């Protein structure tokens, strides 16, 4: 589940992610979803940066699941700015393990969420998702090979100007243990050299290796399909 301190990052989210993983997702995800027409469950929809694109790329009904109240507010605000999508996108406030749908979906999409799932939670999630998919249904998610990053000192990830202010995110990797690593994030707003606010979040994230993911997914009844680097695609057998 998202940490209570995550709200610190919400004002920064769209500022940085629109330049971060989202352009690659917009380029590489549509071919993976070619042929999807009926329904998509999006796990961890966040502020809806991917949600509206899913609705633009496909005619499918979309179930956008986002457990964080703050993120869901951003998501609903984005959907409100696209009134033509409101009939087709249902927003679910539960977490991924608790998802309950009236009928199985054709595809499940999970972008930039895996890092937040504790190993035991993730292991329990795959059978739940298998149960929510139509036979032969598609599961697509982002995955980064190579395991957790090495410890490294605080460095600026990105900064953006907003009027007279500069919004910056800095991060430090404190250490790792197996597939888990601990990182510290600083969220800073400054005007010139004057820091207006600076808040920090320290938390754990997870980067399971290929063998782990393959074992978990095949164990839950999935068969791997083709996907470009950075994504994994699986079909329910
Ligand atoms: C980095 S954001 C990604 C948002 C969006 N998919 C995107 O790419 O812009 C990760 C999201 O996953 C959500 N999340 C974390 N744990 C979750 C869980 N157990 N079930 C569903 N969503 C979860 C968080 O609340 C957050 O909105």
Automatic annotation (TrEMBL):
Annotated Methyltransferase domain ranges read: 40-137
What CDD domains would the database entry show?
AdoMet_MTases
UniProt-listed InterPro entries? Methyltransf_25, SAM-dependent_MTases_sf
The record, for Pfam families, names:
Methyltransf_25
Q: Which Gene3D superfamilies match?
A: Vaccinia Virus protein VP39 (3.40.50.150)
What highest taxon heads this organism's lineage? Bacteria
Task: Output this protein's name.
Answer: Methyltransferase domain-containing protein
What is the species listed in this Swiss-Prot or TrEMBL entry? Planomonospora parontospora subsp. parontospora
């Amino acid at each position: 589940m998202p940490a209570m301190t995550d709200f610190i990052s919400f004002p920064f989210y769209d500022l940085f992610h629109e330049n971060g993983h989202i352009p690659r997702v917009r380029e590489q995800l549509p071919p993976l979803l070619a042929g999807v027409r009926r329904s998509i469950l999006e796990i961890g929809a966040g502020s809806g940066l991917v949600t509206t694109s899913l609705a633009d790329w496909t005619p499918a009904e979309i179930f956008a699941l986002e457990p964080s109240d703050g993120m869901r507010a951003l998501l609903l605000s984005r959907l409100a700015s696209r009134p033509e999508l409101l009939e087709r996108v249902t927003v679910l406030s539960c977490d991924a393990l608790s998802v309950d749908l009236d009928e199985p979906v054709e595809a499940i999409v999970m972008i930039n969420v895996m890092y937040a799932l504790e190993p035991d939670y993730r292991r329990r999630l795959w059978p739940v998702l298998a149960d929510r998919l139509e036979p032969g249904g598609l599961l697509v998610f982002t995955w980064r090979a190579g395991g957790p990053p090495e410890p490294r000192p605080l460095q600026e990830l990105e900064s953006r100007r907003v009027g007279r202010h500069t919004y910056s995110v800095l991060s430090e990797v404190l250490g790792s243990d197996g597939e888990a690593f601990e990182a510290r994030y600083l969220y800073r707003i400054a005007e010139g050299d004057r820091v207006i606010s600076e808040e920090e979040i320290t938390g754990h994230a997870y980067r399971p290796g290929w063998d782990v993911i393959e074992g978990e997914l095949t164990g839950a009844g999935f068969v791997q399909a083709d996907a470009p680097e950075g994504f994994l695609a699986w079909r329910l057998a």
